Amino acid sequence: MSTSYPNTNLYIDGRWQPAASGDTIDVINPANEEVIGTVARAGTSDLDEALNAADKAFKIWKNTSAFDRYKILRKAADLLRKRADIIAQIMTIEQGKPLAESKGETLVGADRIDWMAEEGRRTYGRVIPARADGIYQFTVKEPVGPVAAFTPWNFPLNQILQKVPAAIAAGCSIIVKGPEEAPACCAELAKVFEEAGLPAGVFNLVYGVPSEISDYLIPHPIIKKVTFTGSTAVGKLLAAKAGEHMKLVTMELGGHSPAIVFEDADLDVALNVLSSNKYRNAGQVCISPTRFLVHESVYDKFVDGFKEASDNLIVGDGLLPETKMGPLAHDRRLEAIDEFVKDAVKRGGKIETGGERKGNKGYFYEPTVLTNVPLDAKIMNEEPFGPVAPITRFKSFDDVVEEANRLPYGLAAYAYTNSNKTAEAIGSALSSGMVSINHHGLAMPETPFGGIGESGYGKEGGVEGIEAYLQTKFITQASL
User: Fold this and answer.
1) Number of domains present in the structure of the chain
2) Do residues 283 and 329 touch, judged by C-beta distance below 8 A?
3) Residue 352 — pLDDT band, cuts 50, 70, 90?
């Protein structure tokens, strides 16, 4: 076991503590499959303690001024930036992504804190003109209450920071069920908030068996809001459970993002942006381009260019400076990606490059390009969440719109064209919560993030992000 990697405890009511049972879960380095540490596995008594802490803290925090909340959040953002190099190294060791990506995630996370700190000072109500003299009508925004948040392993820091700053800025307390695969970088975040002066109990961080924690937290009467980022299948289960208790919910679920390349696109730009974003975080990104739909007139050239980009990608341990793509996060992803590729080939798809596990140590998979993949292949219907790019040709605008909108998902979509007319038309025609044309412009702190259909509902980021943690109260008063 590595001595440089920290074991992770639970953070409850401002204290770091092991699980009451003493149970732990092993943490594995995906680059070498070695156990590098442990994370505490919370049980019911630990969750009760976190719930009581969140409840107690909320009663104080909701009455703390927006300006005082702002000052703590801004200090936390500054501290996070100062520790970016340390946190990035921890993240790479436990999650696998290249060090540059880990540092970028940390720095963008600090920007998210800054953005929500500012938004917290602008949770305006309004005055509504009355129909009679002496009547005053107005609305105020109030925090919803203690929040239960469930976050994934693919962006361990960023996904927490899509939720926590907004909740805290709004005046809520929060219990985060962090990712057991990458717990230590999340623990560093809790330390940042603690040092910034966040009162005990406002932010609590637990780990354990996901189903056990969600089954206990979601129906608990202390929890007033549930927010989840993860797969559509799990999201449906959690949303149903929250619905039984009329809990407010934000669901940021899976996608299957079409990337459309029209005949007049700048192919160099399209290839550069789409290939880099396909293989970012080894393709384990909910808004990764996953179905490449290319006009028949430029199809062959695009396939050749994408194959070249894939072949030139340096795959290896994320700690090595030359690495451009690290391993998949765990063995389950390795098995899933291999199944996607084998199914595509079985149905007539052709492997242009890649298609195999890379080496026999670590969860590495070759950057893979597929062609001639039929629509009934698994990869054309289920989110692959890995470094595989199926490329399909199309003939007409109507054909590509039909294919792009064929699936029930609607998280992100991309298009490349040099025609303003085509850009306007495709932006309108795509059934997606987010559309990016001629660049990859999604998931910035100041922009709303979220999908439609089976990709979930609710928004994170932007001015919409803080609204998810506020409720509107209407007050009408007659003068005496």
Assistant:
1) 2
2) no
3) very high
42 and 140, same domain (yes or no): yes
Cα–Cα separations (whole angstroms), residue 398 to 244, 299, 381: 41, 17, 20
At 260, which helix (H) or strand (E)?
strand 257-261
Q: Are residues 131 and 205 in the same domain?
A: yes
Told to judge if 352 belongs to the known catalytic residues of this protein, a careful annotator would answer no
- For residue 145, the enclosing domain spans 10-253+455-475
Does the pLDDT of residue 471 top 90, yes or no? yes
Do 335 and 351 have their domain in common?
yes
Output the CA angle 7-281-286, nearest 5 degrees. 105
Q: Residue 426 maps to which CATH number? A: 3.40.309.10
Residue 278 contacts by C-beta under 8 Å, 6 or more apart in sequence?
288, 289, 387, 389
Residue pLDDT, tens place only, 1-28: 344 899 999 999 999 999 999 999 999 9
Q: Among the residues of 229-298, which ranges form H helices?
A: 232-244, 267-279
- Asked if residue 425 lies in contact with residue 414, where contact means CB atoms within 8 angstroms, the answer is no
* Per annotation, catalytic residue among 94, 252, 454, 460: 252
Q: What is the pLDDT of residues 380-434, one digit of tens each?
A: 999 999 999 999 999 999 999 999 999 999 999 999 999 999 999 999 999 999 9
- Check residue 63 and report its DSSP letter: T
Catalytic residue among 286, 366, 460, 467: 286
Give the pairing type, strands 135-143 and 174-177: unpaired
186 is catalytic: no
Question: Residue 53's domain is classified under what CATH number?
Answer: 3.40.605.10
Detail the DSSP E strand segments found in 360-462: 368-371, 388-394, 409-410, 412-416, 434-437, 452-453, 456-457
Q: Which of 149, 157, 148, 156 is nearest to 192 (CA)?
A: 157
**Together in a domain, 87 and 208:** yes
